TrEMBL record:
Catalyzes the reversible conversion of ribose-5-phosphate to ribulose 5-phosphate. It is an enzyme of class 5 (isomerase). Homodimer. Its EC number is 5.3.1.6. Substrate binds at residues 28-31, 81-84, 94-97, 121. The active site is at 103 (proton acceptor). This is Ribose-5-phosphate isomerase A. It comes from Thauera sedimentorum. The keyword Isomerase applies. InterPro entries: NagB/RpiA_transferase-like (IPR037171), Ribose5P_isomerase_typA_subgr (IPR020672), Ribose5P_isomerase_type_A (IPR004788). NCBIfam families: PRK00702.1, rpiA. Belongs to the ribose 5-phosphate isomerase family. Transmembrane segments: none annotated.
Length: 218
């Protein structure tokens, strides 16, 4: 199976976690795109979706899936999203697609985070995938110096502006032994909007697609 076929298998398995009549949270990325395609087939079963990006909103709008603003709901029963890396404690690096801030906000109000991945995303230690950090533009040089002081090598994502009008620094060369502590440390840097470590609020369910099938870890 190709990596994309594995992503699709994980994504379609997540349809089992969509409660009838609910407003659900929907993430961003190529794996989530398969989930949205599947969700279109059961759209009459749900009340709507809160989207984590303009890209996912456009895809859901095209299918006629009702979009709901997060300001209209207090909580969501489930949030379905992919990851760039996930460890054994279900801490993740996210933001490869640059949607980390809205993803983290939607995840924060969700009771259950269902992470959908192909098996290549499972790692022992987070950090081989460069950690995305969303930054207020005027702070980019300051934040880059502070990230370097924490041991990483930040590189500006060239030509990229987030849905929130900000920049992304991708931090290379990390081996993150304590994801919760590192997530908190980066959040202390003035000018950082969000970092792509989802450790303090990690996943609750991991649907990991391997050639032998989709493993469900809860
Ligand atoms: C986007 C994300 C994605 O979930 C992550 O990058 C995984 O993407 P893909 O499903 O395309 O491999 O965090 O900001």
């Amino acid at each position: 199976m190709t990596q994309d076929e594995l992503k699709k298998a994980a994504a379609l398995a997540a349809l089992d976690y969509v409660p009838d009549g609910a407003v659900i949270g929907v993430g961003t990325g190529s794996t989530v795109n398969h989930f949205i395609d599947g969700l279109a087939g059961i759209k009459s079963r749900i009340a709507g979706a809160v989207s984590s990006s303009e890209a996912s909103s456009a895809r859901m709008r095209a299918y006629g899936i009702p979009l709901v603003e997060l300001t209209e709901v207090d909580s969501l029963p489930v949030y379905v999203d992919g990851a760039d890396e996930i460890d054994g404690g279900f801490a993740m690096i996210k933001g490869g697609g640059g949607a980390l801030t809205r993803e983290k906000i939607v995840a924060a109000v969700s009771e259950r985070f269902v992470c959908i991945c192909d098996a290549s995303k499972k790692v022992a230690t987070l950090g081989r995938f460069p950690l995305p950090v969303e930054v207020i533009p005027m702070a980019v040089r300051h934040v880059a110096r502070e990230l370097a002081a924490l041991g990483g090598t930040p590189k500006l994502r060239e030509g990229f502006v987030t849905d929130n009008g900000n920049l992304i620094l991708d931090v290379h060369g990390l081996a993150i032994d304590d994801p919760q502590a590192f997530e908190s440390a980066i959040n202390q840097i003035v000018g950082v909007v969000t970092n792509g470590l989802f450790a303090r609020r990690g996943a609750d369910v991991l649907l990991l697609a391997a050639p032998g099938g989709v493993q469900r870890h809860e």
